[in-house]
Amino acid sequence: MLSSIFFKVRDMAPAKSTVGKKRKYFTVEEANKALPLVKMIVGDIVRQCRVVEDLQERLSSVPKERRRPVKNPYSEELAQSHAELDAEETKLTAYLEELRGLGVEFKGPDGLCDFYSRMDGRDVFLCWRLGEPEVLYWHDLDAGYTGRQLLAEHADSSTDDELL
Predict the structure, then answer these.
(1) Burial class (CB in 10 A: 0-12, 13-18, 19+), 2
(2) What is the dihedral of CA 36, 40, 24, 149, to 10 degrees?
(3) Cβ-contact 84, 55 below 8 angstroms
(4) Where are the domains positioned within the chain?
(5) Residue 119 · residue 164 · CB < 8 Å
(6) pLDDT tens-digit map of 142-154
(7) N or C: more exposed end of the chain, with fewer CB within 10 A?
């Protein structure tokens, strides 16, 4: 399943140096305006994760004795498969870098993403998952998916209008 390669995928795109770079913060409105492009990129990432995983599974099923370069009809095909995997991983990295370039954090192979925001004087994540119609949730930076809360509930209980 996609979760089997998630940690590798999440770390594939090297973090760009943040020296001299400011973190991008989104309002709910800005995050929702960015969603058409984010949806396209995240869709590409999820599809590309599947391609990479399929290639990894095919290569892992090759018996160890056939992986050694010897003169047999399979060695060339195996080399081509490894080259194909490298190329597909490079594509995946490019998609991840494109998403990070927008200031959006890719969090899961199911299309889970976070947008940095500010709420009640602290940094939080606006949380969105591929398939959701708009950004509807938020959570503290260390809370993760299980800490997701509806934005509407916070707005109803908030007395100051700092929700961005």
Answers:
(1) middle
(2) 70
(3) yes
(4) 24-157
(5) yes
(6) 998 899 999 987 7
(7) N
**Element housing 122 (H / E):** strand 122-129
What is the value of pTM for the model shown?
0.78
Q: Cα separation of 27 and 163, whole Å?
A: 8
Helix (H, G, I), strand (E, B), or coil: what is residue 141?
Answer: coil
58-82 pLDDT per residue, tens:
888 876 655 555 566 777 888 888 9
Rounded CA-CA distance 85/107 in Å is 22
CA distance 160 to 107: 30
Separation CA 131–CA 129 (nearest Å): 6
User: 81: Cβ–Cβ under 8 A, 6 or more apart, which residues?
Assistant: 55, 58, 59
Q: Quick one: residue 95, left, alpha or beta (phi over 0 = left, psi -120 to 50 = alpha)?
A: alpha
